Amino acid sequence: MQRKPYPPEPGREISRLGFGGIRLPILNRNDSEMDYELGQKLVDYGVRHGMNYFDTGWVYHHGQGEVFFGKVLKKYPRESFMLADKMPTWLVHSLDDAKRFFKEQLKRCQVEYFDNYLLHSISKFDEFQNVYEKMGVLDYLKEEKARGRIRHLGFSFHSTVPTMEYLLEKHKWDFALIMLNCLEWDDENEHRQSGYRAGTLYRMLTAKNLPVFVMEPLSGGRVATLNSKAKKVLEAAELGRSLASWGMRFAASLPNVQTLLSGMNKLDQVVDNVRTLSTDFEQMTKQDHETYGRALAEYHKYPIIPCTMCRYCMPCPYGVLIPETFAWYNSFAGEGLLPADAGPNDSQALRRKFLVSYNNTIPPLARANHCINCRKCLMACPQWTFRIPVEMEKIERFVAHVQSQYDVKKSVKSTC
């Protein structure tokens, strides 16, 4: 696998592919029951092919993500790999909390230090000021760095351009982790004023000579699936690359991208990513960008809910399967197959397919109508471009409307 020198640590090289710990193999559909046998195979395969960067977090798999890496990496010499962990910003209510989290993270991961340590999910400016500046948590983490228990200090970012400007002007960092993929990217001459501006953030960090680590290079799997029309555009190019490979190459071709994190829970995912970021990695050409641009134009014709399936919002106290509900809705919306009252999607067959799919995919007690807008999910969700309760209400109303239209038209037909 291709490796790249890491500027904050002269002589150190990091694999272009990093193992993200947010979607590890699990058993029995239980997010906190880790499949260690499969997980060890995936990690071992990656290590054999040159992977040496692993990323975890306090909330991943309800705390079991850190334990997982502590166990599966134990067989390898500590200096042979880099491990990154994060301070769970939204759970910190005092400096003592931060100290307790950090101490427990070292214990869970079975290490004496973290190579990279991050302020997790900087998404709300006032939260950053309160937790890291007023409570003194940032000063504490700098103390841990001075002690050697943190080698490099950075942050993961989900916020706006003004917040990034503040972070870069007020504080000194070693690196940053941002969400960067073809769906959130904005070109320099685009002048986008809303939404997540990955391109602008990347250019800001590059101007400060900060290495950019990438999370969600496939946007929670959306880039690895796109939709059928976008897929046809890429298949017509006859390059033999997977959709995931197109997405990974898009991000990895940027010169200041250090490492791409990928949440992998199947061997074929690891194999494909390793192949894409191998020592003979091929950067995107001008023709590649043009082809990819045509495919993305087809994808963007059908707006979806931009959930990345990170699952920070889970568990919902009222039992709603939030990521699964969004994924189900997007499977119709992204293909332009949402039932309508007029036009080509005014079809009883489509309404029936939509309703049957909902009933078969989401259990009755886990559906959108059980959301009471308690807002607990908003505290944890790093995505500020949409609001979970608002989208849940939209889905609830839309499903009810489709059901009503289906019943009315069925009744009319039966009386004819």
Proportion of helical residues: 40-55%
Strand percent estimate: 5-15%
What is the count of helical runs?
16
**Would you identify the CATH H-level superfamily of the largest domain?**
NADP-dependent oxidoreductase domain
Biggest β-sheet: strands ordered side by side in the sheet: 3-6-7-8-9-10-11-12
Distance between the termini: 67 Å
Whole-number total of structural domains: 2
What is the CATH T-level topology of the largest domain? Answer: TIM Barrel
Q: Tell me, what is the CATH class of the largest domain?
A: Alpha Beta
Explain the overall architecture.
With 416 residues, the chain is α/β, with parallel strands linked by helices. The chain folds into two domains: 3-299, NADP-dependent oxidoreductase domain (TIM Barrel), CATH 3.20.20; 322-415. Helix content is 44%, strand content 14%. The chain has 16 helices and twelve strands. The protein has helices at 36-48, 64-72, 95-109, 125-134, 137-147, 161-170, 198-207, 222-225, 228-236, 243-252, 267-276, 286-299, 322-333, 348-361, 376-380, 388-415, and strands spanning 3-5, 13-15, 17-20, 26-27, 30-34, 53-55, 82-87, 114-122, 150-157, 175-179, 212-215, 257-263. The strands form three sheets. The chain has an eight-stranded parallel β-barrel with strand order 3-6-7-8-9-10-11-12, surrounded by five helices. A two-stranded antiparallel sheet has the order 1-2. α9 (228-236) runs antiparallel to α12 and α14 crosses α16 (388-415). The chain is globular. The mean pLDDT is 95.
